[in-house]
Specification:
- By secondary structure, this protein is of the alpha/beta class.
- The protein has 6 domains: 103 residues, PriA, 3(prime) DNA-binding domain (GIY-YIG endonuclease), CATH 3.40.1440; 75 residues, no CATH class; 179 residues, Rossmann fold; 186 residues, P-loop containing nucleotide triphosphate hydrolases (Rossmann fold); 54 residues, no CATH class; 102 residues, 2-Layer Sandwich (Alpha-Beta Plaits), CATH 3.30.70.
- It is 34% helix and 22% strand.
- The protein is built from 22 helices and 30 strands.
- The strands form 7 sheets. Strands 11-12-10-13-14-9-15 form a 7-stranded parallel sheet, sandwiched between helices.
- Strand 11, helix 10 and strand 12 form a beta-alpha-beta unit.
- Helix 3 packs antiparallel against helix 4 and helix 18 runs parallel beside helix 19.
- The radius of gyration is 30 Å and the shape is globular.
Length: 753
């Protein structure tokens, strides 16, 4: 048996693996992730390496392969567990081992450690005076300046930076006196701290009855060794974060560590502040806007056990804690928890796997749980904890406005008459307003402004996507038809794709309400390192009256003076080419509504839509999650969509159009043959349990001269999809004719391709 080993976990070295023979006496002990000692190079010096793969075939002549020397005494450490996790990601989601390693290992590059150097006298001040007289005679003016400075200070010494800046002392001078044992230089590692410190030790808030019940149930079950995931389902403003804090307090008091996942970097600022006020310097943060040095330092601090709580978006899940006790995933319904790059893992499933590896617990929390999570809670795979009421304040009054009626009444503004009136009232009362445009879900759907009809695929019940070539296409099955100029239902000419943007909304607001102070929060205005924090801090300080933005402004933020939320176009996420559309719309509307009336003042929400009778909008208006879930799961069962069934999307790309089509057809044929073979071994009643759809053009059929095709598979058996994926991988690897074609896999995709 042979092992593939890496000797460095920096990014530039992850591609460089070395194959070693596993001695017979170590075959039962060597596994993926284990730390080993290996003879390296011509001198066979012993180095530490990590096993990332095991196989039976030598990649080079057998006589050139060296034996593993021994297994490190430390065995599998935090890094080793991350490598084991990478192997699981590779298997579970379909990727290369290298892609998986680069995902889970936080150290992406070699970064120079930040240091503080302190210079002190190594001799008495009397002896220093003798050296001083000697250097004055020799006219060694720099040494004289250095010794005079040190003689004037206390035993704490002086920082080298101070010596260089204030006294013009060079490194050479310091080194010369150090060599003569006149001074000592002490080096201290410094951490780049990304957390803006606030006063820790805030007095503990009192839990209400529902919060206490949820926390007590968690603590009791946790202490009893139960590790079934918990789903904390609470309405917006019910105090889920306070429950998280108490749960973490319980776990960290036992000497364990916790990870808190949030869906967006925009949420980092408020979340970190709340946790820091309770836990102080135990808290740190990891996210992509941090510098390389900051990320490197947090990796080290976690490895060394110097922090116990890590907060951040999806990538914080891979914090290398040595004694992980709890993972909390806030707003677990968010699509941001699904990776868009290989391996296309979902943080929910990955968190559960990591928890199993470490013996930790997992808590998912949301006011609008994902259909997948609530489905599992209904099947008793998750323990359901409920917070049915707001901790303070009341749920806002929600109004829906039928934009079809607005058009009939001659209002062509982006703001309905009701919303205009309420904005004017709030501005007069010095209260704040959020205007939300859920633009991220937009994918070119076509709808009628007069009657609200949306053009859908007759086979998949998914909206058709408008293309520039004059066609409308379904990206699940490939169905297409010509673009229409008249509504097939009412005959109106007002039928087209819906287009709007936050910048246009901001301009419209300023034009209609010139007295209002307006902030815009989207990808453009938050591009800087602290872009989110600056805008949110300004709005929280009431330096603006109206905040215009995309979905990042309606997730988890708590603004006590916001009494009006306007959802400008609910249909933009409702009618996209994705079976999650209704779920995503309900969550966005409910979360948006939840930003209003969180303080002492009552709140109002206005939802503008062309389809007010759709169950997602109707139940969002009523803030009735369970009514929505019942309708949505019925739809999923009818169409065999996740979570009732599982889905695998195979994505094929190539710069050669014919090669892309050929590879896609090959993938389809392989899957079809496997399904047929499976059917032969099943009873007639159990056959046809795998549905195969495609090949079809991807959502965007060509990007940067790369052609794109998709194949979908649906089945109730996740393991069957894994098997099909494995066979496809092997077949593609063996096909040397198609040199430029690439495939990737996405299990239970969160969006179409």
């Amino acid at each position: 048996m042979y092992a593939d080993i890496i000797v460095d976990i920096s990014q530039e070295q992850l591609d460089k693996t070395f194959q070693y023979r596993i001695p017979p006496e170590l075959e039962n002990e060597v596994q993926i992730g284990v730390m080993v000692q290996i003879p390296f190079g011509r001198g066979n010096r012993l180095l530490t390496g990590y096993v990332i793969g095991i196989g039976s075939t030598p990649k080079i002549p057998d006589e050139k392969i060296k034996d593993i020397d021994s297994i490190s005494q430390s065995g599998i450490q935090a890094v080793g567990r991350m490598i084991q996790l990478a192997a699981w990601l590779k298997k579970q989601y379909g990727s290369t081992m290298n892609q998986a390693l680069k995902t889970v290992l936080p150290v992406k590059e070699k970064v120079r450690q930040k240091e503080k150097k302190t210079v002190r006298l190594a001799v008495s001040k009397e002896k220093a005076a003798e050296y001083l007289a000697l250097y004055e005679k020799k006219n060694a003016v720099a040494r004289v300046r250095l010794l005079k400075a040190l003689c004037k200070t206390d035993e704490n010494g002086l920082d080298t930076a101070v010596l260089k800046e204030q006294y013009q002392i060079t490194t050479q001078t310091i080194q010369a006196l150090e060599k003569q044992n006149v001074i000592t230089v002490e080096t201290q590692e410094l951490y780049r701290n990304p957390v803006r410190e606030t006063a820790p030790g805030q007095e503990r808030l009192i839990l209400n009855e529902a919060q206490q019940k949820a926390v007590t149930q968690f603590c009791t079950q946790y202490d009893a060794g139960e590790r079934k995931p918990w789903l904390l389902y609470g309405v917006t403003g019910s105090g889920k974060t306070l429950c998280y804090i108490e749960m973490i307090q319980h776990v960290t008091a036992q000497g364990k560590q916790a990870i808190v996942l949030i869906p967006e970097i925009a949420l980092t600022f408020q979340t970190v502040q709340r946790f820091y006020r309770r836990f102080g310097s135990q808290v740190s943060v990891l996210h992509s806007r941090m510098s390389k040095g900051e990320r490197y330092d947090q990796f080290l601090r976690a490895m060394r056990g110097e922090i116990s709580i890590m907060i951040g978006p999806r990538s914080a899940l891979f914090t290398p804690f040595t004694n992980l006790g709890l993972i909390i995933m806030d707003e677990e319904h968010e699509g941001a928890y699904k990776s868009e790059q290989a391996p296309r893992y979902h943080a929910r499933e990955t968190a559960v796997h990591i928890a199993k590896m470490c013996g930790a617990g997992v808590v998912f929390g949301s006011a609008t749980p994902s259909v997948e999570a609530f489905y599992r809670a209904k099947k008793n795979e998750y323990t359901l904890l409920e917070l049915p009421r707001r901790a303070s304040g009341t749920l806002p009054a929600v109004y829906t406005v039928d934009l079809r009626e607005e058009l009939k009444c001659g209002n062509r503004s982006v703001f309905s008459r009701r919303l205009q009136e309420l904005i004017q009232r709030r501005l007069a009362a010095k209260e704040q307003i959020i205007l939300f445009l859920n633009k991220r879900g937009y994918a070119g759907f076509v709808s009628c402004r007069m009657c609200g009809h949306v053009l859908k695929c007759p086979h998949c019940d998914i909206s058709l996507t408008e293309h520039k070539n004059g066609k409308m296409v379904c990206h699940y099955c490939g169905y297409e038809q010509a673009r229409v100029t008249r509504c097939p239902v009412c005959g109106s000419k007002y039928i087209s794709g819906f287009r709007a943007g936050t910048q246009q909304i901001e301009e419209a607001v300023k034009k209609m309400y010139p007295q209002a102070r307006v902030l815009r929060m989207d990808m453009d205005t938050t591009a800087g390192k602290e872009g989110h924090e600056k805008i949110l801090a300004a709005f929280s300080a009431q330096e603006a009256d109206i905040l215009v933005g995309t979905q990042m402004i309606v997730k988890g933020h708590d603004f006590s003076n916001v009494t009006l939320v306007g959802v400008l176009a609910a249909d933009m996420s409702l009618h996209v080419n994705d079976f999650h559309a209704a779920e995503r719309t309900f969550a966005l509307l409910t979360q948006a509504a939840g930003r209003a009336g969180r303080g002492k003042l009552p709140g109002n929400v206005v939802i503008q839509t062309y389809d007010p009778d759709h169950y997602a909008i109707r139940t969002a208006k009523e803030q009735d999650y369970e009514a929505f879930y019942d309708k949505e799961i019925e739809y999923r069962r009818l169409m065999n969509y996740p979570p009732v069934w599982n889905m695998l999307l195979v994505h094929v790309t190539s710069p050669d159009e014919s090669e892309c089509s050929s590879m896609a057809q090959q993938v389809y044929d392989i899957a079809s043959q496997m399904i047929s073979h499976t059917d032969e071994n099943q009873s007639p009643d159990d056959r046809h349990l795998i549905q195969l759809i495609g090949p079809a053009d991807a959502n965007i059929a060509k990007v940067n001269d790369i052609y794109r095709k998709v194949i979908y598979m649906k089945t109730s058996d996740y393991a069957a999809l894994i098997s099909i994926k494995d066979v496809i991988e092997q077949a593609v690897k063996a096909d040397t004719a198609m040199k430029h074609a690439n495939i990737s896999f996405d299990f239970n995709p969160m969006s179409g391709f």
